[in-house]
Predict the structure of YhcH/YjgK/YiaL family protein.
Amino acid sequence: MLKGSMDDAAWRAGLPAALRHMLERLADPALRQAPAGRRDLDGDAFLMVNDYATQPAEALRAESHRRYCDVQVMLEGAEQVGWAALAGDPDAAYDAAGDVAYHVPGPVLAWHAFTAGDVFVFAPDDIHLPGVALHRPARVRKLVGKLPWTTLAGDWPPAAG
């Protein structure tokens, strides 16, 4: 997992080229007002504009991915994100079509505040639990770039991490 800021040019400069390119795409001002939904990008990459209400952690499921890494940028609002290193989870059935494995009951998580301008990058070895209410349920608007892991695997972890 990496955490940084869209405002931190030095942090972004230390990232692999494919990740920097995704962050440039996610910085497009038109996405701030775009309707929720999926948009295809170059190759197998895509992004999602998400609008939702945060929830208590107990109402959500931790997840991990195998083919894609998540590049998440908070546009509006705030939430908590839980994180744990994937250490093998025989109870997590993998859905290849959705590229997701849910981890229930969730692992012991480290909690991080996720506020406007923040960036989180979750690799396939990161279990993450997004959408958790920070203080109380609230609306958030977030971008999630899905970057094929094959474009990053040789450059991971980056020196900026």
Remarks:
- The chain has one domain: 2-151.
- The CA atoms of residues 5 and 147 lie 18 Å apart.
- The longest strand covers residues 139-148.
